[in-house]
Amino acid sequence: MTAGKATGRALKDYRRITVKIGSALLVDRKSGLKRDWLASLVEDIAALARGGADVLVVSSGAIALGRTVLGLTARSLPLEESQAAAAVGQIELAGAWSGELARHGLKSGQVLVTLGDTEERRRYLNVRATISTLLKLKAVPVINENDTVATSEIRYGDNDRLAARVATMMGADLLVLLSDIDGLYTAPPALDPEAAFIPFVERITPQIEAMAGAAASELSRGGMKTKLDAGKIATTAGTAMVITAGTRMSPLSAIDRGERATWFAASPNPVRGYKTWIAGNLEPAGRVTVDAGAARALRQGKSLLPAGVTLVSGRFARGDTVAILDPAGTEIARGLAAYDAADAVRIAGLKTAEIETVLGHEARAAMVHRDDMVMSRALETETADDPA
Fold it and tell me: Of 21, 50, 65, 355, which sits most exposed with the smallest number of CB within 10 A?
């Protein structure tokens, strides 16, 4: 299915596009940066920019490139070597992007972020302001996780979800994930020769998520699962997404030529502004399980009251993001906790009138207020094209 059939639009019809590039596309494990491929991609980006689109790039490859420059083997690196490789690779990568974009009269700006830069509200707003200014000044932002300081406990771990966060943060209407696979299949095609290609997904449901496999390359951390996680973040906020193979030359032009790709529809009722930040939080600090009555009330637009809470888990403070689960353990919403974890445990299951007695002070009626909550899009009924 071509772009026109799936969405009725070509890439040039989108006003702001975030493009994510995987490490294996940019870097050859032996020879280093794939300069010819990068040049063809930048030519595509320049064409979109000339057409009036804002293009943001989320580029993997710093560690992969740095380890090639430093002569490190393809084995798993200890943290210190990984961070050193990132430090070397970032310089090489930024220079390559800057040089290629300059050939087309385009300026570029490097933005390195960590998980906390998008999960903490104030830092999120700071990153958004920086990228907004770059776009106003007609510079192409080239964004990557700051692997020189990130550790396994405080990292995205993949640039698919980072790209989705950037796309929603900046109000992009399309997220393009260039990968080493040409789209979503009913099962990992490398493992199942009968796997059927899916050209269009209306909603990312648990059934769609079950089709995901593991990472396909030692140079990349992601896999189809992280791409679907990215899709949930993006589509919930009103950003359409497309997954396609980036292994061919001029991969963005290839999408419009009708090369195979899977398109994901944006939600017809997207969350906006403040709630976009809530919905996009990657790792909730805690989880709150509710009974069936509370789940129904949440779907009707009500706040979460302590009386409907059956279980509280995790370590979170007031204002942290928590996932809200129904009795079956399915996430139905995310929101900002009005209590820290210790107090939430104490008041779970209590009626509003009983809370002050237990806590010893006047307290809020809601454990998560509806104004600080976003319902999960997975609650909607799946509608997808038949596999091709």
Answer: 50
